[in-house]
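Priority: medium. Attachment 1 of 2:
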């Protein structure tokens, strides 16, 4: 899996403050169909084995494809996380078995923060998405998806943004 120190390099004097990941409950919806297919495959086990070698081959192929799909989705969830340091926020996104994207946001450039939740799963498990607007020529919105306790995550990020932003002086 992804190792923190292989994924990002910290500056001198930079410390890791928090580590965020989407709640495991967000895996329910994408994995419902593959798990049902897995149960169906095993339910039809005797049927496949009665067909002889071709049935066994069909069973193994269906089982392998379904397990690969489940593993791919689970690894994508596991490989997507957010690291907050005292100077930067990293959004590491894994969108397949071999594709990883690392996005870095300097905390001094964060203009605004907000969070929200939507849907039954989010309400039941108290999940939400934290949005950061970044001042960088054009306003860029970075979303930290499906976090548990988004208000605590936003508060933690807000404290670090406030500490990283240089004070403005009025003339």
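Attachment 2 of 2:
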């Amino acid at each position: 899996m992804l190792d923190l120190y292989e994924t990002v390099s910290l500056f001198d004097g930079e410390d890791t403050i928090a580590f965020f990941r989407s709640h495991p409950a967000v895996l329910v919806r994408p994995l419902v169909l593959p798990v049902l297919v897995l149960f169906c495959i095993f339910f039809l086990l005797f049927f496949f084995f009665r067909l002889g070698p071709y049935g066994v081959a069909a069973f193994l192929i269906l089982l392998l494809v379904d397990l690969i799909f489940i593993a791919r989705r689970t690894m994508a969830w596991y490989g997507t996380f957010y690291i907050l340091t005292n100077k930067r926020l990293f959004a590491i996104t894994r969108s397949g078995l071999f594709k990883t994207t690392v996005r870095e946001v300097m905390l001094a450039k964060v203009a605004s923060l907000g969070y929200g939740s939507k849907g039954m799963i989010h309400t039941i498990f108290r999940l939400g998405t934290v949005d950061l607007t970044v001042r960088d020529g054009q306003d860029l919105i970075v979303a930290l998806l499906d976090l548990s306790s988004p208000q605590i995550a936003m508060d933690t990020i807000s404290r670090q943004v406030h500490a990283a932003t240089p004070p403005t002086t009025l003339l």
